[in-house]
Amino acid sequence: MDPITPSALQQELKAWVQNKWLRRLDAALAGFMHELDPQADAAVLLAVALLSHLEGRGHACLPLAQLCEDAPDLLGWGAEPAQRLAELNLPTTPAEWTQCLAASPLVWQPGAPDNHSPLVLQGQRLYLRRYWQYEQRVASQVLARVSATERLDTLALRAWLCRLFPIPAAGLDWQQLACAVALRSRLAVITGGPGTGKTYTAARLLALLFAVHAQRQTLRVALAAPTGKAAARLKQSIESALQGLAEALAPDFDLRELASHIGPARTLHALLGARPDTRAFRADAAHPLELDVLIVDEASMVHLEMMAALLEALPPGARLILLGDKDQLASVEAGAVLGDLCREAERGGYSAATAAFAQAATGQVLPAEYLQAERPQALAQATVMLRESRRFGGPIGQLALAVNRGDVAAAQGLMAQAEDQALLQLPAPEPADVLRLALQGRPGAPGGYASYLQALRQRPPAEAGLLAFEDWARWVLGEFERFRLLCAVRAGVWGTEGINLAVERALAEAGLLSRRGEWYEGRPLMVTRNDPSVGVFNGDIGIALKPHKLLDAQGLIPLRAYFLDGPQLRSVGVSRLNDVETAFAMTVHKSQGSEFEHTVLVLPEQGGSHLSRELVYTGITRARKFFTLVSPQAQTFHQALRQRTRRASGLLDLLAV
Ligand SMILES: Nc1ncnc2c1ncn2[C@@H]1O[C@H](COP(=O)(O)OP(=O)(O)OP(=O)(O)O)[C@@H](O)[C@H]1O
Question: Where's the UvrD-like helicase C-terminal domain (predicted)?
C-alpha cells in the first residue's frame, strides 16, 4: 500500500481533531508547514502534528525511537487512534524516520549549515526550534555553572559548618553535605521530599555564603519561586531560620543585619520582569539581574522556557540554588527540568574529588554506594538529595513513599488502618460525599470549609477600623488554607468544574454563602494567568471580600479580591481580574507549592494518561495532617500508581558529561 498523500493526511488530521485526539493547533501547525514547503512529505507533516501534540502534553521533543516502540504510550492514545496512525503506512523505524526528516528543507540537523528551518532533528529527537534552543541554553548554562568549582578553605568551612550544624546527625548528614557541595559551584541543586529540610539547608547555606564572602555587606541575595505563595513561604522560612542562626554566628558578624537587606521574595515572572503580550522578559543576557545569589524554591514547577530565561538572565558570576522535590509533578508547560537535573540524585554519583572535599569540609565519609568511579558527571557533583523527613514521617509520609515506589498494596494497607485518622479512603464514594467533606470534613478530620465560613461571618464592625478589618481578612484567608479539595482533572462531576459548581450550590443552599451572580463575598478564587499590570500571577489564591468602608458612586461596596503573601495582605478590585476561577476545588497541578491541614484528593472515574504516580504523590504531599482519597473506582488509583510520567527531553544526554 502507498503511503498517505499530504492532502489526504490533512483530511485525516482534521478527523483526529474532531475526535479530540489532537488539538486544532496541532493540525494547523502541520498545515502551516505544508504551506512553507508544498513538496513536504506526509510523514514530515505528521511528525509536526505529533510533535505539537506532545508539546501540549509537556514534552520538549518527539522521540522517534519511542514513537516506533510504543506510540500509544508516548502519545497518550487509546487503541483506535493508534490503529489509525499505524494504517497511514509511514516510517516504522527510527532510521526510516530520521532519513525522511533529514531530507526535508523544514528540518535542520545541528552540524549542517543552518538553514533557519523551523524544525531541528538532533539524533533521534525532533524539536520545534524554540524548544531545541531552550534545551541547549539550559544545558550549556548548567554545565558552565557546575564546572567552574571554587577553591575553598576547607578548614575554615568546617569550622563554620560546625557552628551552623551544632547537633551531630544520627547518620550521614546530607544537609551539611549539601551546604558544602553547594558552596563550591555557581549552581547547586538541593532536592528532597516534603519536610526534608530544603529550606532549612538553604538558610544555612546562605549564612555560610555570608560567612565566607570577603565583602559580605555587599552580597546581593534574592529569593524567588514560581508562585507568589511559594515565594512568600520561602521568604518567611529563610527569614526565621536566619534569625535563629544569628546567635551562632555572632560576634563574627551580624546575620540579622545582613538578612534585613534581603528583598522581598518574588515570583520568577516578577523577578525576570514579565511584559504583557510577549514571551521576552526585561532581564536577559544583555540586561542581567543585579544579584549575586538567587535561591529558587519549588523548582519542579519551573518549565524549560522559564529555566532557560532564568539562567540567561543570571550574571555569569552569580550563584543559583535550586530547591525542589524531584518526584513532584512537573509544570503544565513543556519540560521537566528539575526531574532531568535530578535523574541521578538518588544514586549520588560523586567523584573521588567531591568525596575528598566533602570529607575535608564536613568530616563525613561518603559511603561507596554514592560514589561513581567511572566518568562521574559534573552536575552530580553539585546535586544533593536530602533523605530524612522531619515533619512527614507519619502515615502521610509513609503513604507518599509507598506511592512513589508504586506499591499499591502498601498504599492501600496504610489507608485501611482505620485506627489512624490521618489517612482515609472513602469506600465507593458518590459526588455527595465530596460535598459532605467540603461542608463538614470527616470523622477524625472535622471542619471542611466550615472554619473559613465561620470566620467570614465574624467581620468586625466598620468602627473597629482598618487594622481590625485587615486582621479579619488575614484570618479568613488563613482559615481557607486549612482545607482543600484537589482534583486530577478539570471536566466532569469529579473534576474541578463540576465540584466547584456543586460546592457553591451546596454552601448557598445551606445558607453559608449568599451567592448572587459570579462574584459574591467569600468567593475563593484562583488567578489563572499572569497579569503584571494588575499585580496578580497565575496560581495566586484569594478571596473576594467587601473592603473596609469604601462606597462607590451608587453607595455600593464593590468587592475586592484579597491575597495573602506571608503576612502581607494585598487586594485588587474584582472588576480588574480577567482570568480567575472559583477555587473550592483546584487541580493538583495548581496546588503545587501549597499545603493544607486536610487535603482531599479526588480522582476521576476513568483512568487515563493524565493520571500518574507523580500526580497522586503531589496530591498526598499537599496534606499536613489529614489526607482523604476519593477514588470512585478502585482501579483508577491502581492505574495512576502504575503510570510514571517521563517527559521526552534531550537534557539528560546533554548533561551527561
Ligand atoms: N537538621 C534539622 N534539625 C532540626 N530541625 C530541622 C532540621 N531540618 C529541618 N528541620 C525542621 O523541619 C521542618 C521542615 O524543614 P523545611 O521546611 O526546611 O523542609 P522543606 O524540605 O523545605 O519542606 P517543603 O517541601 O514543605 O518546602 C522545619 O520545621 C525545619 O525547621
Answer: 583-625
Task: Give residue-wise pLDDT tens across range 455-464.
Answer: 999 999 888 8
The residues facing 531 across adjacent strands are 536
Is 193 known as a binding-site position?
Answer: yes
- Alpha carbon 576 to chain centroid, angstroms: 27
Q: What ipTM did this prediction achieve?
A: 0.98
Domains of the chain: 6-123 (1.10.10.1020), 136-389 (3.40.50.300), 395-514+583-642 (3.40.50.300)
What single-letter DSSP state applies at residue 422? T
Which of 163, 167, 172, 199 has most ligand 1 atoms within 8 Å of its beta carbon, as the pocket-test mutant?
199
List, in sequence order, every beta strand (DSSP E) within 375-438.
383-386, 423-425
Ligand 1 site, residue 324, Cβ cutoff 6 A: no
Mutating to test ligand 1, I would choose from 172, 189, 200 the residue with most ligand atoms within 8 A of its C-beta, which is 200
Q: SS3 helix, strand, coil % of the chain, rounded to 5?
A: 45, 15, 40
Residue type present at position 632: P
For residue 44, give the nearest of 59, 64, 25 by alpha carbon. 64
What are the beta bridge partners of residue 199? Answer: none
For residues 185-213, give the mean pLDDT: 93
* pLDDT tens, residue by residue, 564-610: 877 789 999 999 998 999 999 999 999 988 889 999 999 998 877 77
Q: For the residues of 431-457, what is the DSSP string, one character each? A: HHHHHHHHHHEETTEE-TTHHHHHHHT
Query: Cis omega (within 30 of 0) on the bond before 251?
Result: yes
495 burial type by CB count under 10 A (0-12 exposed, 13-18 middle, 19+ buried): middle
Q: Give the model confidence (pLDDT) of 344-381 as tens digits.
A: 899 999 999 999 999 999 999 999 999 998 999 999 99
pLDDT at residue number 135: 97
Whole-angstrom distance, CA of residue 440 vs CA of residue 8: 57
**Residue 197: CB within 6 Å of ligand 1?**
yes
Q: Does residue 226's CB lie within 6 angstroms of at least one atom of ligand 1?
A: no
Q: Where are the beta strands (DSSP E) in 241-312?
A: 266-267, 293-296
What does the pLDDT read at residue 90? 86
Task: Return all residues near 63 (Cβ < 8 A) that are at least 6 apart.
Answer: 74, 124, 125, 648
* Pocket flag, ligand 1, residue 389 (CB < 6 Å): no
pLDDT band (50, 70, 90) for residue 13:
very high
For residue 198, report the distance from its CA to the centre of ligand 1, in Å: 6
Q: Rg (Cα) of the chain, in Å, rounded?
A: 26
pLDDT in tens, 168-178: 788 899 999 99
Q: Is 278 annotated as a binding residue?
A: no
